[in-house]
């Protein structure tokens, strides 16, 4: 999992901000599973102009150059540490993990027959989510990460939690295809602060691959930056000025575009929550628990 985002400035006095936000409302309203599932999420078709801006953006800027930009930036600028993978926002880490733990417990409770044997940390970096969350819940956790440099650091970084480490796969998310022995394999697949680096089409294909790797009763958790509800755009490229030459090859999507991508992948939202507390100077962060439309 890589870094959270500030839309206005590169650094934030986060310690004071977190203290003042301890009882603050979430940036986006909470939506429980019942309210979400009242909609038919699996059979909604958009018109020809739906998310036209996003489609035009990827037609112009998607492809190998997009991925090379992101990979190059992180290899050059991110050290293999919590400071590096959180891009200097490590003071946000404890609040992030606490909210994630609460969300995971709630998401598990909604799934009959959900087990806690094996999880996949996708876009794992050095294994921050594995160390502080997944290894405290699941017997074993596999890591999927595109950077060998990050994976090399993971066993040492995990320390006392390294006994929960399963397999490590050096592979980009867009290249993730579960082999036959990993179909119906994972109880939970956790994906945090990394799908911002995927094109929309590759995001859909990645989610389809995750669904194939999921056990019956399992969940896919996406935790990601989103645009604010009052932002009219489909997506916003990262970096100074928001241009297509974004410094790290990322995009922040609207909540509606995220939901459309989930539908295209054959998934429905079982639970949705906003990260709270969270500084209002940062982009909002939303957590989704996704399950296949067809069991």
TrEMBL record:
CDD domains: AdoMet_MTases. Residues 230-251 are annotated as: Disordered. Keywords: Methyltransferase, S-adenosyl-L-methionine, Signal, Transferase. It comes from the Eukaryota. Residues 1-29 form the signal peptide. One of its GO terms (biological process) is methylation. InterPro entries: MeTrfase_NTM1, SAM-dependent_MTases_sf. It is an enzyme of class 2 (transferase). GO terms for molecular function: N-terminal protein N-methyltransferase activity. Its EC number is 2.1.1.244. This is Alpha N-terminal protein methyltransferase 1. Gene3D superfamilies: Vaccinia Virus protein VP39. It catalyses: N-terminal L-alanyl-L-prolyl-L-lysyl-[protein] + 3 S-adenosyl-L-methionine = N-terminal N,N,N-trimethyl-L-alanyl-L-prolyl-L-lysyl-[protein] + 3 S-adenosyl-L-homocysteine + 3 H(+); N-terminal L-prolyl-L-prolyl-L-lysyl-[protein] + 2 S-adenosyl-L-methionine = N-terminal N,N-dimethyl-L-prolyl-L-prolyl-L-lysyl-[protein] + 2 S-adenosyl-L-homocysteine + 2 H(+); N-terminal L-seryl-L-prolyl-L-lysyl-[protein] + 3 S-adenosyl-L-methionine = N-terminal N,N,N-trimethyl-L-seryl-L-prolyl-L-lysyl-[protein] + 3 S-adenosyl-L-homocysteine + 3 H(+). The lineage of its organism: Eukaryota, Sar, Alveolata, Dinophyceae, Peridiniales. One of its GO terms (cellular component) is cytoplasm. It comes from Zooxanthella nutricula. Belongs to the methyltransferase superfamily. NTM1 family.
